[in-house]
Amino acid sequence: MAAPTLTPFPLSCIAALTILALLSSLTIPCCAASDADPSSSPYLEFVKASCAYTTYPDVCYETLSSYAATIQTSPTELAKEALSVSLNSAQLTSDVVTNLSKMSDLTKRESGAVNDCMEMISDSADELRQSLVAMRDLQGPEFKAQMNNIQTWVSAALTDDDTCMDGFNAGKGSDKGKVKGIIRSNVMRVAQLTSNALALISRLSE
Fold it and tell me: Where does the source fall among the domains of life (predicted)?
């Protein structure tokens, strides 16, 4: 009886099986890319530790942690981002107050308070903008003078925020509740961010 004829195993199949065997023997580390994540723990810890020196540390961390990759461990970059966040908030609040000033059913007193606040917030935004420009050019023998100017502008911006809120304080119950609430909540947020920025800037000059 003749021996059975063996059908040759296709070379392509052998190659495929060899590749699969090699792949199955490899150990691929899980989540290796996370080690290179620039916003990982050290940078976030720096932001958190720095925010502990501010008046509103929770607000500070909430608003600045997303910039950890840019800030890294630089106090100057941290102060710049804090100023930038404060300026953005002031500009948005200025838009809110401007829109409220156009309401047709405001009383004379309410209209006056809203218009005064609109001017104060506009001034606050201008002062924060000046500060941010100066922060981008901190160097050389003028460092101390520049820091003094920046602190003066940011302090003035904070005073403007407080002055705006004074026009809607709890003792003036004739103000329209909704308008008063919207303006106070927005301006208070700007004031908190500005206060935090001032604290971080002050640490730079120490």
Answer: Eukaryota
